[in-house]
């Protein structure tokens, strides 16, 4: 199966989307040359964050410019997982941009309170990478999680996207093979827009 140059990837803080991205990136054809020691955060037994993240007050801004985005990777080839919570705010525009370039959009949904709780368990505002300063405090974080989830659900409904669990069968369907690792929470759903 041919992968696109980019998958614009979004989910709310605490949705465990980073773990899903890391499973995807074990599949041949994905480009992980955006991983550097300063772009990594681990907590406990979980892998945390690896690679470039785009967004407000982060190292890289969520700008729909292929040249700007691609500079985060050392190698040019392969499929890049372009991670940003901010894509959710204007997901229709992101999807239109992706389609114009032959790229895909993947959304990860997890209920608001489960995501909020997991984000705090993972370190909350003590997370070293990426930077969550834009969210300011827990009250604003929960409000933004709700806004992002609602935006994704609304757009998915508009385009008749199908939400499913991130199973090996789902991976096989979309990537032609299965990555290494499992997503432990059953309340996480994914959809791919091509």
What topology does this entry show?
Blueprint: E1 6-11, H1 17-24, E2 40-43, E3 46-50, H2 66-70, E4 80-83, H3 91-100, E5 104-109, H4 112-121, H5 138-158, H6 168-175, E6 189-193
Parallel strand pairs: 1-4, 1-5
Antiparallel strand pairs: 2-3, 5-6
Helix pairs in contact: 4-5
Fill in the keyword field for this structure:
single chain, 194 residues, alpha/beta, 4-stranded mixed sheet, two-stranded antiparallel ribbon, 15% strand, globular
Fold and architecture overview:
With 194 residues, the protein is of the alpha/beta class. It has one domain (6-193). Helices cover 32% and strands 15% of the residues. The chain has six helices and six strands; from the N terminus they run βαββαβαβαααβ. It has helices spanning 17-24, 66-70, 91-100, 112-121, 138-158, 168-175; strands at residues 6-11, 40-43, 46-50, 80-83, 104-109, 189-193. The chain has a four-stranded mixed β-sheet with strand order 4-1-5-6, sandwiched between helices. It has a two-stranded antiparallel ribbon with strand order 2-3. The two termini are 14 Å apart.
Q: What is this entry, summarized?
A:
This protein is α/β, with parallel strands linked by helices and 194 residues long. The protein has one domain. 32% of the residues lie in helices and 15% in strands.
